[in-house]
């Protein structure tokens, strides 16, 4: 995974919002879009208490990302920050054809990134991956523009073990796509990175558990 050196400034154009400059460091610098997103995630999405995760693991907190991926302020931040992460790592529009992910969690993230690209005059298709193929109609598992022969990135709202992302990756490959990377808004630092990189998939994220002041579990 290729990142900008710590302290390197880069510009994030937030559509109708003022243009802000972020600095890539171990934790988001105060006053940057990433820092604001971390504040919004902590305020709206982090729920403390013993919970069972979709992976089957138990944790002392839950990050309910739909509370921020559908939030009026957070959604545009997510779109532009993820798009910037993809571009600085060599997976921006021009290098890829589409972004998508496993429904339901990835749906608003996918739309946010596509809208961010459109606001910059960039062409980027989107797709959604069902957990299993429909039993009627076109019987498709990957919905949206045809991904066969396309270079795509799989998106997630938050990653725990990487299992959901790998499900989406396999569905995309079955549909004929070339999956070039996986990207998440929040990485919980609980094995997703190792699982995805073990599958030879570059893995990117915007915020880590440490960025949110959370211990990996």
UniProtKB/TrEMBL annotation:
List the cofactors: Mg(2+)
- Any one Gene Ontology molecular-function term assigned to this protein's record: orotate phosphoribosyltransferase activity
The record ties this protein, via InterPro entries, to: OPRT (IPR023031), Or_phspho_trans_dom (IPR004467), PRTase-like (IPR029057), PRTase_dom (IPR000836)
> EC number(s) in its UniProt entry?
2.4.2.10
Q: Which UniProt keywords apply?
A: Glycosyltransferase, Magnesium, Pyrimidine biosynthesis, Transferase
- Residues annotated as binding orotate are 160, 188
Domain of life of the native organism? Bacteria
Which reactions is this enzyme annotated as catalysing? orotidine 5'-phosphate + diphosphate = orotate + 5-phospho-alpha-D-ribose 1-diphosphate
Amino-acid positions noted as binding 5-phospho-alpha-D-ribose 1-diphosphate in the UniProt annotation, renumbered to this chain: 130-131, 134, 136, 156-164
Annotated ranges, domain Phosphoribosyltransferase: 118-194
Q: In which pathway does it act?
A: Pyrimidine metabolism; UMP biosynthesis via de novo pathway; UMP from orotate: step 1/2
Which GO terms of type biological process are on file?
A: 'de novo' UMP biosynthetic process; pyrimidine nucleobase biosynthetic process
Function according to Swiss-Prot or TrEMBL: Catalyzes the transfer of a ribosyl phosphate group from 5-phosphoribose 1-diphosphate to orotate, leading to the formation of orotidine monophosphate (OMP).
Fill in the subunit field for this protein.
Homodimer.
The family line of this record is:
Belongs to the purine/pyrimidine phosphoribosyltransferase family. PyrE subfamily.
For this entry, the protein name equals: Orotate phosphoribosyltransferase
Q: Which organism is it from?
A: Ruania alba
Which gene is this protein's source? pyrE
């Amino acid at each position: 995974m290729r990142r900008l050196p710590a302290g390197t400034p880069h510009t994030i154009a937030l559509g109708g919002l003022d243009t802000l400059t972020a600095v890539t460091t171990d934790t988001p610098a105060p006053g940057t879009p990433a820092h604001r997103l971390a504040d919004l995630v902590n305020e709206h999405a982090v729920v403390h208490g013993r919970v069972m995760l979709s992976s089957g693991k138990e944790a002392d907190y839950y990050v309910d990302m739909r509370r921020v991926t559908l939030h009026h302020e957070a959604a545009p931040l997510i779109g532009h920050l993820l798009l910037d992460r993809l571009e600085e790592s060599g997976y921006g529009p021009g290098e890829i054809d589409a972004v998508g992910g496993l429904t339901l969690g990835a749906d608003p993230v996918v739309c946010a990134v596509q809208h961010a690209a459109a606001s910059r005059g960039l062409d980027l298709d989107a797709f959604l991956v069902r957990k299993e193929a429909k039993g009627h109609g076109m019987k498709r598992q990957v919905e949206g523009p045809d991904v066969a022969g396309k270079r795509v990135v799989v998106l997630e709202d938050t990653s725990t073990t990487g299992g959901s992302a790998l499900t989406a990756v396999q569905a995309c490959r079955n549909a004929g796509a070339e999956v070039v990377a996986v990207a998440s808004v929040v990485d919980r630092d609980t094995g997703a990175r190792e699982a995805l990189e073990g599958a030879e998939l570059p893995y990117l994220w915007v915020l880590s558990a440490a960025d949110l002041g959370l211990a990996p579990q």
